[in-house]
Amino acid sequence: MPITTEEGSAAYHPRWRARAAFALLFIGFCTQLLVARTIDEPYPALFQPSFAGTPLKDGELTAEVPKVTVQFTDGDTEEIDYRDVLPPSRLHPLVVFRSAFGEPDAETEDATVDWLSSRMQTRYGERVVDAVLVEWFEVSYRSEDSWAPRAMLDRTVEVRINGSAAG
Amino acid sequence: MDRPLADTARAFDRWVEVSPVSTRDLSIYRVIFGVFALTTLPRIGFVSDYPSTFLDPPPGPFALLDTVPAPWVLTSLSTATAVAAVALTIGLWTRCASIAYALLLTSSYGLTYSFGKVDHTILMVVVPLALAFSGWGDHISIDSYFTSRRRRQTPSPWAPRLLAVCIGLALLTAALPKVLTGWLSPSTQASLGHFLTKYVVEDKTGGVAPGVNSTASLTLLWEALDWVTVLLEASVIVAALSWRTFRPTLAVLVVFHLSVLLTMGIAFQTNVIAYAAFIPWARLVTFERTMSSVRLRLVVGAIAAVLLVYGLLMQNVVPVSARQTANAAMVLMGSVFAIAYLVRLAVRSRRHGDELVSDAA
Question: Of A167, B259, B260, B360, which is least packed with CB atoms within 10 Å of its CB?
Fold first, then answer.
């Protein structure tokens, strides 16, 4: 049976714990909204996916897509999927890849360069990788073109790998 | 205290303490939640495969993270989370296990969300926190065998209401940004845009997606869908004021989650399991009342052993695709429950309406 306590009965007493729990919830909720509005969505916090925004503008969708080219010291190049650069995980690959190689400062971060060098060594073994070129394209898809992609180069990030470290 | 204020406080007390589910319902739910928790334990070992320069934590305690934890820390955290989940499922020190599981899960998720994207699985944390003091360990639990009825702590009947308000507020955070970013403007068909992003850009063309794509020119339909989505998400917090409206709203929401799964391939399984807290499970599950005490103990013990082995060893070898299938199955199962409940509600209200008409005649 549902548990209820009637006011006025001998069992009635103020629900201080309940009041405190709800007050805490209300304060926490207002605080997280404030943080989300002024900084970014916090964690842990009571949020659900918002799918904010309207991706379709005037019949056009846009997306940012990376193209990864591996350059070897012997002059050879190979294009690989950006997802193959990352180790298997449950993370959103594009978000992680953009966070790591989205801006030119990745070119000079020692930890990133060492990590990429080690990944390339695992992938290619004896072949020595000279650099990894990441080209970021703005790709647009228009309904009138039957959603055929149209890509435009936006920026390039080139991570030079020390040949001896990679090999 | 002022009289109006005192009256409001008492009205609030009365409102929070009315619960649509008993401790027996919640205890059965605890087992279901626990099994689900064990089969969806986050895998965090991969975190150590990334360098610390990849860290991009959200505001909050994880913003203090400036280096990727060592593998032994991740293994310890995974093991502790699995142990807490097993303790929760079998009802061993249920209150402590509920809180421990919630805190450990928050930490596990927090580490994986420190690479630029927060997934919205927070209801898996909210459920055990809100229900820790609800008495959901009072039946079908080790606690209930070793604690005499007199020594048991009084359950907090307000816990389900707290959970309902948490769910309502969480869904409000999904509705508000939509309103602020133009979902309700007649010139935008935001849901169509999100569908096409999955279909065209991410190439998610399975299931019913091609059929849905053929309706892309029906602007009015998609605009209506934008409005329905916002209204549905925003209505949950209002519905939480009364159990009479809350449960049907959740049932409609589960059907909505099914439509999202079928069209965009996104499974809201953690939402569905959270909504299941409001099902009167004791009416559906009766075996534990008819089974002898000794046999029940043996069954609980065997289940505990299997869960422990799975939680500690097996969950890392289950392929991701199997997990995704299980998540989709959870949403499908929830939808079957929800549709059956809504049909039953419709039949009952129609019968009630007929009775009123015949009474009036």
Answer: B360
**Tokens standing for residue B258:** 């099914």
Q: Is the predicted pLDDT of residue A163 greater than 70, yes or no?
A: no
pLDDT tens sequence across A23-48: 999 999 999 999 999 999 999 999 99
| Confidence band for B312, pLDDT divided at 50, 70 and 90 | low
Q: Report how far residue B137's alpha carbon sits from residue A141's, in angstroms, rounded to the nearest whole number.
A: 54
CA dihedral for A104, A109, A111, A115, sign (positive or negative): positive
Q: List all residues 6 or more positions away from B173 whose beta carbon is below 8 Å from its beta carbon.
A: A33, A36, A46, A47, A48, A50
Segment B145-166 mean pLDDT: 82
Task: Note the pLDDT tens digit of each residue in A86-115.
Answer: 988 878 889 889 988 988 877 778 888 999
Q: Do A50 and B178 touch (CB under 8 A)?
A: yes
Q: Which residues in chain B have their CB less than 8 angstroms from residue A55's CB?
A: 190, 193-194, 196-197
Rounded mean pLDDT of B223-232? 95
Looking at beta carbons, which residues of chain B come within 8 Å of A147?
Answer: 196, 200
Looking at this predicted complex, what is its ipTM? Answer: 0.87
Give domain limits for chain A: 9-48, 56-160
**What single string gives the DSSP state of each residue in chain A?**
------TTSTT----HHHHHHHHHHHHHHHHHHHHHHHT---SS--------S---BTTEEEEEEEEEEEEETTS-EEEE-GGGTSPS-SS-HHHHHHHHHSSGGGGT-HHHHHHHHHHHHHHHTTSPEEEEEEEEEEEEEEGGGTT-EEEEEEEEEEEE--HHHH-
Residue pLDDT, tens place only, B40-62: 888 888 899 899 988 999 999 99
3-state class of B318 per DSSP? coil
In whole angstroms, give the CA distance from residue A74 to residue A67.
21
Tokens of B314: 């097996």
Contact B122 A47 (CB under 8 A): yes
- Please give the DSSP secondary-structure letter assigned to residue B68: P
Whole-prediction pTM: 0.88
Q: Which pLDDT does position A100 carry in this prediction?
A: 87
Whether B118 sits inside 8 A of A88 (CB atoms) is no
User: CA of A106: how far to CAs of A78, A93, A113, A129, A156, in Å?
Assistant: 20, 17, 8, 17, 11
Cα Rg of chain A, angstroms = 26
In this complex, is the C-beta atom of B7 within 8 Å of any C-beta atom belonging to chain A? Answer: no
User: Which residues from chain B sit within 8 angstroms of residue A49, using beta carbons?
Assistant: 120, 174
Q: Smallest Cα–Cα separation from A90: which of B325, B324, B35, B269?
A: B324
Tell me: pLDDT of B283 over 60. Answer: yes
Please name the residue that has the structure tokens 């299931």: B207
Distance from CA of B357 to the nearest CA of A (A): 31
